[in-house]
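Quiz preparation item.
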């Protein structure tokens, strides 16, 4: 695999960052994961807006010429160099505040940010998408700016790990009784045929897929509530599903060992999954089996 690091295209094992990099030392950086469908970046502008917002909120100055078009050019070259020019893949982009002696305050403004970009092939796990997954609830232990997509993912890592150890595919994060989101996904519940998802704000990541699914849901005529929904009302959930750049629309059929609805993916998540795939242009890809 060839990757991009600070202006250079390198074999991955030759791409090295400084031990002083503030991404390594402090988790002082942001990232994006963008989907690639048959060689084309999907929802590129939405990912770019979120990245720019994170950089500006955190006061991280990217290098001159760091534009969406420049990142697209780099991503396309990486896809090409890695034999993924027409493939389904993901692009990972990380920008940190750069390398500087370890003090908490920001380094001098001329310190160059670190920019890393890599690509990976991705195949849709059709069996999971069709059958649904189990989730395990975990306390949401994250900080008060979950809207920023920073590389500080320790609470997410711990929640996912604990969920996995308990047989879950994802952790469903709960704060003060309210479902916020998944460790790396947005959560939606269906109650009385209507959709509920946590309001945007500082408590969740503003998911690119969340926005797409909200739009699709309205177009399909579903009533949508961007309002808190509580775990102790889970007996009312007819469906639960997760969304994300690599998760698409993924039905959840089990929470903490108890079935959601009849324990099978329901009609709302199936309709939204189909609509999202249609919008992504992957509906024509045959589902195996
Ligand atoms: C905490 C969290 N919530 C939600 C999402 C889904 O966001 P998106 O749809 O932009 O991938 C992610 C994606 O990584 C995430 O990390």
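Solution:
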């Amino acid at each position: 695999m060839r990757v991009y690091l600070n202006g250079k295209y390198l074999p991955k094992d030759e791409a090295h960052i400084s031990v002083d990099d503030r991404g390594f030392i402090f988790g002082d950086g942001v990232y994006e994961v963008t989907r690639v469908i048959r060689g084309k970046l999907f929802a590129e502008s939405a990912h770019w807006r979120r990245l720019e917002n994170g950089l500006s909120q955190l006061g991280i100055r990217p290098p001159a010429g760091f534009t969406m078009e420049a990142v697209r050019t780099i991503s396309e070259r990486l896809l090409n160099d890695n034999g993924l020019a027409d493939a389904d893949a993901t692009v990972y982009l990380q920008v940190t505040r750069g390398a500087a002696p370890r003090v908490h305050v920001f380094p001098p403004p001329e310190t160059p940010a670190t920019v890393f970009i890599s690509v990976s092939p991705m195949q849709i796990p059709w069996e999971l998408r069709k059958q649904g997954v189990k989730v395990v609830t975990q306390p949401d232990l994250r900080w008060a700016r979950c809207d920023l997509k920073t590389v500080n993912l320790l609470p997410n890592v711990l929640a996912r790990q604990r969920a996995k150890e308990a047989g879950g595919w994802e952790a469903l994060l709960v704060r003060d009784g309210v479902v916020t989101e998944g460790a790396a996904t947005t959560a939606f519940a269906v109650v009385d045929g209507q959709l509920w998802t946590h309001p945007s704000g500082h408590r969740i990541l503003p998911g690119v897929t969340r926005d797409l699914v909200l739009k699709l849901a309205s177009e399909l005529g579903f009533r949508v509530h961007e309002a808190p929904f509580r775990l102790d009302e889970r007996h009312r959930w007819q469906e639960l599903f997760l969304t994300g750049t690599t998760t698409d629309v993924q039905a959840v059929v089990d929470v903490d060992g108890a079935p959601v609805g009849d324990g099978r993916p329901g009609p709302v998540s199936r309709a939204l999954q189909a609509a999202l795939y249609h919008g992504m242009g992957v509906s024509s890809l045959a589902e195996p089996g």
